[in-house]
Amino acid sequence: MVSRTSPQALGSPIRARSAVPPMRLSGGMLLALAMNRRARGLRGLDVLRRSQDRAPPLSS
């Protein structure tokens, strides 16, 4: 016979993590995050531009 325990009995890892206050980010970490977001945004725009260039010509 297999015994099963409820998730509440084991304790929720999400609940355990939420009890810890969020980590404060240093200036260097904030700069790295901002640069990463900007690079992802620029890369995303480049992908959109290339997809328009590769699109088949519009038939009239």
Please supply descriptive tags for the structure shown above.
0% strand; mainly alpha; elongated; 60 residues; 3 helices; 63% helix
Overview of this protein structure:
- This protein has helices at 7-10, 13-18, 27-54.
- The longest helix has 28 residues, at 27-54.
- It is 63% helix and 0% strand.
- It has 60 residues and is mainly alpha-helical.
- The chain contains three helices and no strands.
- The model has no long low-confidence stretch (mean pLDDT 68).
Q: If helices are DSSP runs of H or I spanning 4 or more residues, what is the number of helices?
A: 3
Q: What is the rounded Rg?
A: 24 Å
Query: How many DSSP-defined strands?
Result: 0
Largest sheet: none
Rounded to the nearest angstrom, the distance between the terminal CA atoms is 71 Å
Helix content: 55-70%
Strand content: under 5%
Mean pLDDT over all positions: 68
Which class of secondary structure composition applies to the elements? mainly alpha
Which spans have pLDDT < 50 for at least 5 consecutive residues? none
Mass-distribution shape: elongated
Order of helices and strands, N to C? HHH
